[in-house]
Amino acid sequence: MWQQRLTQLVTACHWIGSKGWAPATGGNMSVREDEQWCWLSESGRDKGTLTTDDFLKVNIATLQAPSGRTPSAETGLHTLIYRLFPEANAVLHVHTVNATVLSRIEKNVQLALSGYEMQKSLTGQQSHLDTVPIAIFENDQDIAALSARIEAYAEQHPLHYGFLLRGHGLTCWGKDVSEARRHLEGLEFLFECELKRRLYTTE
Ligand SMILES: CSC[C@@H](O)[C@@H](O)C(=O)COP(=O)(O)O
Ligand SMILES: [Zn+2]
């Protein structure tokens, strides 16, 4: 099961690379093996050319990698998502231009998406008339501190699909690689629309 997930994740990484969403080694990706373990991209690799050998088994509770190799610098965000959301089996973190810029232009702690048909690319969304809030967290080089802030937020607010790190990028997830990919592509499309809308209108 998880081996198939990992193969699908490698394909997703190549797709992300071809889109230019993980430039200059930015981004990181993972899949869950089970309640205890996940497989995370090795730190510092070009995420567009990864193979299955570039993923490290990581303990979700302790963040330890038995291989002794160094998993992503943002391992703590992936393991947080697997801890918070038992239904999440794949996590994608990307550095897209739209996510990076929009998260700086939007000064609030949430980006409100409404009026877009493509909101329905997000599981459970059924109408452009609804508002989808996407949380924005201040970026932090201290990933443990950032994870604690996200966890505290999730205790008070629903946290679906993904979140933005201001000036940094998007982290999103799904019940499988295919759903995580749809959330990534859908959110990225919505971010680009929202960025352009703000460029052309004053509303
Ligand atoms: C280009 S450096 C960006 C990193 O600091 C980080 O934000 C990132 O997404 C990739 O880190 P990595 O340790 O390779 O998973
Ligand atoms: Zn990053």
Automatic annotation (TrEMBL):
CC cofactor note: Binds 1 zinc ion per subunit.
Entry cofactors: Zn(2+)
GO MF assignments: methylthioribulose 1-phosphate dehydratase activity
Enzyme Commission no: 4.2.1.109
Binding annotation for Zn(2+): 93, 95
Domain Class II aldolase/adducin N-terminal: 7-195
InterPro entries: Aldolase_class_II_sugar_metab, Aldolase_II/adducin_N, Aldolase_II/adducin_N_sf, MethylthioRu-1-P_deHdtase_MtnB
A Pfam family this chain is assigned to: Aldolase_II
EC category: lyase
The family this protein is said to belong to: Belongs to the aldolase class II family. MtnB subfamily.
Designated name of the protein: Methylthioribulose-1-phosphate dehydratase
Gene expressing this chain: mtnB
